[in-house]
Amino acid sequence: MNSGPVWEDGTWSPLPALRGDLDADVCVVGLGGSGLSCIAEMLRLGQRVVGLDATSIGGGAAGSNGGFLLAGLPSFYHQAAAKFGRERVCAVYRRTLAELDRMTEETPQAIRRVGSLRIADDDAELADCAEQLALMCADGLPGEPYDGPEGRGILIPTDGAFNPLLRCRLLAERVSADGAQLFERSAAVEIRGDRVRTEQGTVRCRRVVVAVDGRLDMVLPELGARVRSARLQMLATAPALNIDLPRPVYQRWGYEYWQQLPDRRIALGGLRDRAGDVEWTDAAVVTDDLQMGLEMILRERLHVTAPITHRWAGVVGYSTSGLPIVEEVRPGVWAIGGYNGTGNVLGALCGRGVAQLAVQGRSELLSELR
Hints:
Blueprint: E1 20-23, E2 26-29, H1 33-44, E3 49-52, E4 68-69, H2 77-84, H3 86-106, E5 111-112, E6 116-119, H4 123-138, E7 144-148, E8 151-156, E9 160-162, H5 164-177, E10 181-183, E11 188-192, E12 195-198, E13 201-204, E14 207-211, H6 216-219, E15 227-237, E16 249-251, E17 256-260, E18 266-270, H7 272-275, H8 288-301, E19 308-319, E20 325-330, E21 333-337, H9 343-360
Parallel strand pairs: 1-13, 2-3, 2-14, 3-10, 6-16, 14-21
Antiparallel strand pairs: 4-9, 5-9, 6-8, 7-8, 11-12, 12-13, 15-18, 15-19, 16-17, 17-18, 20-21
């Protein structure tokens, strides 16, 4: 049994740890999807960039999530509109649609634009799906009713699925070739606007971006009242030849989710709500009870008979507001994170936006998020 994510193929050559002192315009802490998107934008803006990660490229939730690419905010569209305002939420949705297109062009090897399904678990959720779809259609957003083998609900044709770890590694290779200096196994032990210190070195810089989702409240304790770490658990199987799932599926209000990979393996996760407070943790380890629940979904609902090959967990950040954290938290120190479990697209958008904000003082990408 493999204890790492199903996305790991064993081909990555580790990067060195930071040793000694370096000078840069910007130091980015966290080399997941959002941090690497930030670095790419910083390079476009003419900045000299050093990137650090406590583990490895995509070593956190960015490389161990379920591989869903969903437009919009974490809440379902009609719920977000009721909370934040319809015009604002529609504008964010359109920005994330554009970001999805950009990501697909940037790393087509990692992304499949196959759409996504929200499948209702009962009549009450089906009625909620109808409410969501009605508002999306009224606002000119893509969506259509769905009734198929997976169940009944909504098809979002513009969403997608991807290999999150592959995308991170492709971005890392690209920004390294463009001049960024990246270091793995280099945890920040001191973060100031003019420097980031690790156990073995220091980056002297003009500004810092902390692009960490899970454990953001530990890296920057001043955010502890506004963002909280949570564990998301998953499992994966050998190729499941008896089923065909062309699109990723969200079911039971998004608390259960799965997709079938191109090689026909199944990646399945969820049940955080059923496990109680124990999943509000920064410990990225699997637990027997929750994994047993996931296995029941796999065997009894999806009828997958293929053996389980992987079990893993990732840690993500949940903000109290429902919007991501994007702000200068200390002089010269910017933070992004708290994507509420759906940071693959929002994180890339925030990474590019915070680079523009930190360097230029403004960013249209973040107009509706701040």
